[in-house]
TrEMBL record, chain B:
It comes from Tardiphaga robiniae. InterPro entries: AAA+_ATPase, ABC_transporter-like_ATP-bd, ABC_transporter-like_CS, FeS-cluster_ATPase_SufC, P-loop_NTPase. It comes from the Bacteria. This is Fe-S cluster assembly ATPase SufC. The gene is sufC. Belongs to the ABC transporter superfamily. Ycf16 family. SMART domains: AAA.
Length: 439, 252
């Protein structure tokens, strides 16, 4: 009874938001129809609650209460603030594609095409009435209320095409900047990578001082062809009272390597859900995810991996360092399809609890329909080792510094998985910022 | 002149059991003291309490270091002021390279003393020089602290730190345990190189053998949480002959 009521209420409130926003959302005709459908799909459930199995540990109805109103397009002042922030990112020489409050900021971005790379703003593509397939930009194969909500509201993002045999010298770098309080930004980016291509893709989420209690809703859809290599690094440093609800949907071809790293230090409430399909033979997937959370932060890292072709390897490593009353969720699901013989899939979750009140939920799931496979999962939860701490302190390290060194060691393996030196340094600096602000 | 270390009537409990029952000893700058005694007599407990390891309750007595109340200080403050314990069982710290650990530790101590940080080239030169004298290959320092080190390598790594930190009080807890004679000699040479008029050493050992290499000025016999006899280096040889049995009776 109550549930139904709550759902109706949320839906009704949001209905108003959607109606109000519609005029600003790019794309008419089929795009607008797709948005309406997506919104209807969302409205059937509203924000997911713990009664939806996939969202069991991250009850957004409870954590978010509501979807915030759509962020207004950035004015000159917001763009200037964002520009300043982007300069301080220190990500080395990357091709920056900057999105401010959900709107692609051409003036802050480097749209250089060439070397097999083409970049377009999603809004322009949605508005392109000559394209018969423009509505596909908002569609996806995954049924999930938050992906549907994203499709309904997506204002902007990137469409990146990388041709066969391309190997861009610079990493492509999508930067999300939030500048305003109490609003929601909805972004969606698509990356299509051809065969025999070698690409590095970076995503940063940052906020200016004035951005508080905002919501970032993002989706990234990636296709990787055969014999390709994608190195992906995501660093989420949203404001501590903001929400970041993001999805990655990745399809991996044959004999391809996909190495994805994500670091979460920001966001009061966050979820990063990745749906990765190994669709071609002999491919390798490696995921390294790190949560560094404190206060009452809630972070959710969810993976659904489809082994849909024979002889692929997947390695998922999750590390959480949790202080105060932070709550971390790791859900790892591996589905091995009947055809996917010789699958080798493993996942490992390790949590370091720095406080008695910190909490982690681990939910590993294996569903195997092939008979010749190797799959496994493991989880450890522990505190810092007192004998190691004493050794370091006896060598002159103050307590916090000794803890910091051991925490660095704990997440070190995941950070080491980043191949690009500059990007590894970026992740290390973000982790160091977190450690320093503990002191 | 103030003694470097004064332990006065020290009483220590672990989990409601008294381990040290009134231990007294004085160590002056330039001296080398040996503490010998059977297993379980409280030697490691004494070294841990001096270094500040948590879990020990001091129920009586005091420890003065250069006249200051050591028990009031955090372990890292003690290190910065010049107390160094070479552990009987050095821990392994995966994920922290020895080099990073050494630099972090040296700079933490310097910072606590109000000194400037080591410049990286100066630091590297110093490490290289000390490592060479201890037969420690630089490659070993790129690995995690003590990870995959042999017993002898772990002990040499302790001596390496001692040489880098230049402490004024070095406590060596069973440095000889698990070392063959060659490894022992290298480590002992390293220790001897650090002997100086303003630095004291407390060498804890079960066996007399180590004291052939690090020759002490004073020898104390510990039994059941007390110093039961003190003397010169000849006391160590005497013990080698007669064993600890007589002292265990004396303490009982
Ligand atoms: N953490 C501890 N908990 C309980 N008993 C301990 C602990 N540490 C030492 N002891 C006891 O204290 C006594 C002295 O131990 P220790 O100082 O290690 O002796 P030694 O180094 O001379 O062999 C032993 O009886 C030992 O069992
Ligand atoms: Mg001992």
């Amino acid at each position: 009874m109550n549930v139904a009521l709550a759902k109706t209420t949320t839906g009704a409130v949001l209905d108003g938001t959607f109606a109000a926003a519609r005029g600003r959302l790019p794309g008419v005709g089929t795009v607008a129809e797709t948005r309406q459908q997506a919104f209807d799909d969302f409205a059937r459930t509203g924000l997911p609650t713990r009664r939806i199995e996939e969202w069991k540990y991250t009850d957004l109805r409870n954590l978010l209460r509501d979807v915030a109103p759509l962020a207004p397009a950035p004015d000159q002042a917001a763009l200037a603030q964002a520009a300043k922030l982007v300069e301080t990112l220190g990500t080395g020489d990357t091709q920056k594609l900057v999105i401010v409050d959900g709107v692609f900021a051409a003036g802050l971005s480097d749209l250089t095409s060439g070397g097999g790379v083409t970049v377009h703003a999603l809004s322009a593509m949605l508005d392109d009435a000559t394209s018969a397939t423009r509505a596909d930009l908002l569609r996806s194969r995954i049924v999930d209320p938050m992906i549907a909500l994203n499709a309904a509201f997506a204002t902007d993002g990137m469409l990146i095409d990388i041709a066969d045999d391309a190997a861009p010298a610079r990493p492509l770098h999508i930067v999300h900047v939030a500048t305003r309080p109490s609003v929601a930004a909805f972004t969606r980016s698509l990356v299509r990578i051809g065969n025999r291509a070698r690409v590095t893709l970076v995503e940063s989420f940052v906020a200016t001082e004035s951005a508080k209690a905002y919501q970032a809703h993002d989706a990234v859809v990636i296709w990787i062809g055969d014999d390709s290599d994608l190195q992906h690094v995501r660093v989420m440093e949203d404001a501590g009272d903001a929400a970041n609800i993001a999805t990655a949907i990745v399809t991996v071809g044959a004999r391809t390597k996909f190495n994805t790293f994500s670091l979460t230090t920001g966001g009061g409430v966050s979820r990063y859900q990745s749906f990765i399909t190994l669709a071609g033979v002999d491919s390798e997937l490696s995921t390294n995810s790190v949560h560094l959370l404190r206060d009452k932060q809630h972070g959710d890292c969810t993976f659904v991996i489809e082994h849909a072709a024979p002889n692929c390897l997947s390695r998922e490593l999750f590390r959480a360092v949790l202080d105060d009353r932070a709550h971390s969720v790791f859900q790892g699901r591996i589905n091995v399809h009947q055809i996917a013989q010789k699958t080798d899939g493993k996942m490992m979750s390790r949590a370091l609890l720095l406080s008695d009140e910190a909490e982690i939920d681990n939910k590993p799931e294996l569903e195997i329909f092939a008979d010749d496979v190797q799959c496994g999962h493991g989880a450890t939860i522990g505190a810092l080792d007192d004998s190691l701490l004493f050794y370091l302190r006896a060598r002159g390290l103050p307590e916090k510094a000794a803890q910091a060194l051991l925490i660095q060691a704990f997440v070190g393996e995941a950070l080491e998985s980043i191949v690009n030196d500059d990007l590894r340094d970026v992740a290390i600096s973000a982790a160091e910022r977190w450690l320093e602000s503990r002191a | 002149m103030t003694a470097l270390l004064e332990v006065k009537d020290l009483q220590v409990r672990v989990e409601d059991r008294e381990i040290l029952h009134g231990l007294t000893m004085t160590v002056n700058g330039g001296e080398v003291h040996a503490i010998m005694g059977p297993n379980g007599s409280g030697k490691s407990t004494l070294s841990h309490v001096i270094a500040g390891k948590p879990g020990y309750e001091v129920t009586g007595g005091e420890i003065l270091f250069k006249g200051e109340d050591l028990l009031e200080m955090e372990p890292d403050e003690r290190a910065a002021k010049g107390v160094f314990l070479a552990f009987q069982y050095p821990v392994e710290i995966p994920g922290v390279t020895t080099m990073n650990f050494l630099r972090t530790a040296v700079n933490a101590q310097r910072k606590a003393r109000g000194e400037s940080e080591y410049l990286v080239p100066d630091f590297l030169r110093k490490v290289r020089e000390v490592a060479a004298s201890l037969n420690i290959p630089m490659d070993m320092l790129k690995r995690g602290v003590n990870v995959g080190f042999s017993g002898g390598e772990k002990k040499r790594n302790e001596v390496l730190q001692m040489a880098l930190f230049q402490p004024s009080l070095c406590i060596l807890d069973e440095m000889d345990s698990g070392l063959d004679i060659d490894a022992l000699r290298v480590a002992a040479d390293g220790v001897n190189a650090l002997r100086s008029p303003d630095r004291a050493m407390v060498v804890i050992t079960h066996y007399q053998r180590l004291l052939n290499y690090i020759v002490p000025d004073h020898v104390h016999v510990m039994s059941k949480g007390r110093v039961v006899k003190s003397g010169g280096k000849e006391l160590a040889l005497e013990l080698e002959e007669s064993g600890y049995a007589q002292y265990e009776d004396a303490a009982a």
